[in-house]
Amino acid sequence: MGRQLSQRIEPSAEGVPGLPPLNIFRTLARNEPLSRGFLALGGHVLRGGGIPAREREIVILRVGWRAQSEYEFGQHAVIGQDAGLSADEVSALADSGPLAWSDDDAALIAMVDDLCDDDVVSDETWARLAARWSPEQLLDLLVLAGYYRLVSGLLNSAGVALEDGTSGWPAGVAARLQAPREQGR
After folding, report:
1. Domain locations in the chain?
2. Which terminus, N or C, of the chain has the lesser number of Cβ atoms within 10 Å?
3. What is the pLDDT of residues 57-70, one digit of tens each?
4. Euclidean distance between CA atoms 127 and 50, whole angstroms
5. Is the CB of residue 114 less than 8 Å from the CB of residue 120?
6. Assigned architecture for domain 3-178
7. 35-50 per-position pLDDT tens digit
């Protein structure tokens, strides 16, 4: 069992108009000017159309794992499965399990790992990515990974609690950090 994080910023009761009452949005609602810009960029990386949903979720889930953001991983485990990832693939993104990834999927995982390790994509990984993705899509991938590193750090540091019913880490995964749990609303 990893270190249990504590809630440091109380979510707003109101949340963000037009968005589900998730704790991430309710926490961001405490700073309305910040939430506007934050959510505008988030909307682009989630719905901008430059990266197919399945590949986008591989990047987000791997970033969530590498940043040890249980909240992020738990929310996107469901979204990832809706986008076509299997439960085994989602779990493998958390613990680098023995799953055999396609070359294209493995390149996305390597990109996230390079960025998390060194803050730069290696030449080898870049060549693998550039064989598939256009320059515009490469920019989308870099911003996607960077945005979710930011999101993960915010979630961990603010102590955003997992909602009731959100699974968090896959069973059997040894994580360093555990998100706080919602204490009923």
Report:
1. 3-178
2. N
3. 999 999 999 999 99
4. 19
5. yes
6. Up-down Bundle (1.20)
7. 999 999 999 998 888 9
Beta strands in the chain, from DSSP E residues, in sequence order = 3-4, 177-178
Nearest in space to 45 (alpha carbons), one of 146, 124, 119, 123: 146
Q: Which residue bears the tokens 């360093």?
A: 176
pLDDT, one tens digit per residue, over 90-106 is 999 997 666 789 999 99
Would you list the DSSP string of the chain? --EEP---SPPPSS--TTS---HHHHHHTTSHHHHHHHHHHHHHHHHSSSS-HHHHHHHHHHHHHHTT-HHHHHHHHHHHHHTT--HHHHHHHHHT-S----HHHHHHHHHHHHHHHHSS--HHHHHHHHTTS-HHHHHHHHHHHHHHHHHHHHHHHHTPPBPTT---SPTT---SEE--B----
Instruction: Please give the pLDDT value at position 100.
Output: 84
Residue with tokens 């990047």: 59
